[in-house]
Design brief:
single chain, 441 residues, Rossmann fold, 3 domains, six-stranded parallel beta sheet, four-stranded parallel beta sheet, 18 helices
């Protein structure tokens, strides 16, 4: 299995830009396939969800079985490995602590000018659908990363949609994680049909104001098509990672971390970026040895990514060129391997998360540190942010002007309103208002 090696010093601008391409760059072909799925769910509700579960997930699900029952939760609690439950409980504590610390104050209100008060009030959104993928495995961590911030924010209706397994059931760890997170509404629905279900509602799946969570291009296409129906948030598609390593880094460790996101699936992206040829060569030598310690499917995914056009080793001329590439790429995950990783932090502008140092592999960020692993992909880290408690809250501006503060504001507002041609605006802060305030007609 060959690992791709990209030497930036020998590449044209077009070739370099091609390295920035992601799987989700063009969803148009998926959108055409997704349209009839959305239409069917809107028209048929649970019947369509059951049909698509059989068609796409090969799962024996009937329309009356879409919702997880209390018995399903109890069964999962009894059958899940106690060690897994302990780890989930540990993860839950870290995620809850991080997002509780992140939660803003309910309201601030300051005197902007004498007699003029303004501020923000922050309140939770009414409902959210949390999409939990399952195609390449089960992800109870995604349950906690999406539902716990929503719970901390105070969202009253939280629904989980997730594909059923071949047995027609929801993964045990998913149900246990949901219960730990305080969520009882879990539904057997995956792919585009799940996004349509929370957008329009069905007999059992509630209509939601927003949907969050990572997913396949089918999910991404459905979100794009339904963005006028519900808030679809920042795109979170196939996994991406850049490991930035300087000359003080251990290339073997850099290679070990590079595998982490590349094993998610063949549509992932993962690059080691370094200006040290030794680090690059050490990683190239070490990665095949690490593959020998993994299962066949994950090796297939990782080798496909690292041997293809969206992964491998990138050798830069120098530190400046390496950092510039990282910023242009705007990766979901960015790991920094250096004996002094903080020296680069100020220059790294675009990333969903930055994991500093050799003791902070993406594995820890994905599961137990507490930072959210639902991160912007496909370059959205240039303007987007990780999933946070803020995604489940909205701000309302609050203002109050006293009789003392009104005259000066009215004078300037009238000038601007008149200049912009808004007669009603201007009249509302004219002498007419003053007469009315004084009780004169």
């Amino acid at each position: 299995m060959t690992i791709s090696f990209h030497d930036l010093s020998k590449m044209t601008r077009v070739q370099r830009d091609r390295l920035l391409t992601r799987t989700e760059g063009d969803l148009s072909s998926y959108e055409e396939k997704v349209k009839p799925i959305i239409a069917a769910v809107r028209a048929e509700g649970d019947v369509a969800l059951a049909r698509f579960a059989k068609l796409f997930d090969k799962a024996p699900v009937e329309a009356h079985e879409i919702a997880a029952t209390e018995a399903d939760f109890d069964r999962a609690e009894k059958t899940l490995d106690p060690q897994v439950k302990e780890a989930l409980d540990f993860m839950s504590g870290s995620i809850r602590r991080f997002h509780e610390d992140q939660k803003p104050e309910e309201m601030w209100f300051h005197e902007i000018r004498p007699g003029v008060f303004a501020g923000d009030r922050t309140t939770p959104i009414p409902s959210v659908g949390c999409y939990i993928p399952r195609g390449k495995g089960a992800f109870p961590s995604a349950v906690m990363m999406t539902t716990i911030p929503a719970n901390v924010a105070g969202v009253t209706e939280i629904a989980i949609v997730t594909p059923p397994g071949p047995d027609g059931k929801i993964d045990d760890a998913t149900l246990v994680a949901a219960r730990m997170s305080g969520v009882s509404k879990v539904f057997k629905a995956g792919g585009a049909q799940a996004i349509a279900a929370v957008a329009y509602g069905t007999e059992t799946v509630p209509k939601c104001a927003k949907v969050v969570g990572p997913g396949s291009p089918w999910v991404g296409a459905a979100k794009r098509l339904l963005s006028h129906v519900l808030d679809t948030g920042t795109p979170a598609g196939p996994s991406e990672l850049i490991v930035l390593a300087d000359e003080t880094a251990d290339g073997r460790l850099a290679g070990l971390d590079l595998i982490i996101e590349s094993e998610h699936g063949p549509d992932s992206s993962a690059f080691l970026v370094t200006w040290s040829r030794k680090v690059a060569e050490d990683a190239l030598t070490a990665i095949p040895e690490f593959w020998k310690q993994m299962g066949a499917q994950r090796v297939e995914y990782s080798s496909t990514v690292l041997g293809g056009p969206m992964g491998g080793i990138i050798l830069a001329r120098d530190e400046d060129e390496a950092i510039a590439f990282c910023n242009d790429y705007a990766p979901e995950h960015l790991g920094v391997h250096s004996e002094e990783p903080f020296q680069y932090l100020g220059r790294l502008k675009n990333a969903g998360e930055i994991l500093l140092g050799k003791h902070t592999p993406p594995t820890l960020g994905n599961f137990v540190i507490g930072v959210n692993h639902v991160l912007p992909t496909s370059g959205w880290a240039r303007t987007g942010s990780p999933l946070t408690v803020y995604d489940f809250m909205k701000r309302t501006s609050i203002a109050y002007v006293t009789g003392k503060g009104y005259p000066e504001l009215a004078k300037h507002a009238q000038v601007i309103a008149t200049y912009e041609g808004f007669d009603g605006h201007a009249n509302a802060v004219s002498e007419t208002r003053m007469r009315l305030l004084k009780g004169n007609r």
